[in-house]
Amino acid sequence: MLMLLARWIVNAAALLLVAYLYPGVAVTSFFAALIAALVLGLVNAVVRPILVLLTLPVTILTLGLFIFVINALLFWFVANVVQGFAVSGFVAALVGSILYSVITMITSWLLFTKSK
Fold this sequence. Notes:
Layout: H1 2-21, E1 25-27, H2 30-54, H3 56-61, H4 66-81, E2 85-87, H5 90-112
Antiparallel strand pairs: 1-2
Helix pairs in contact: 1-2, 1-5, 2-4, 4-5
């Protein structure tokens, strides 16, 4: 349970870092980042697998690049749902989702693989 809480806080901090690095993404507070990270995690766990399955033919035709579009749309959706978290458009959602994925992957690797 403590590991899940730590990942949630790290993902919220990663979202704040994305907002700092890229002007198309805005987060008003750490609390908004916590809520956005929680909703983003839930959406990625529940909705993303369904969308990936439904868009499998397009994903195969684009050699997997359509996954970036799905990630951007989910990132944009969460920004529309959560107050205090904003994305200025689709391109900002695409860049923001890529940055968020890279930052969370690096921080998870650095922080949580050494503890096993």
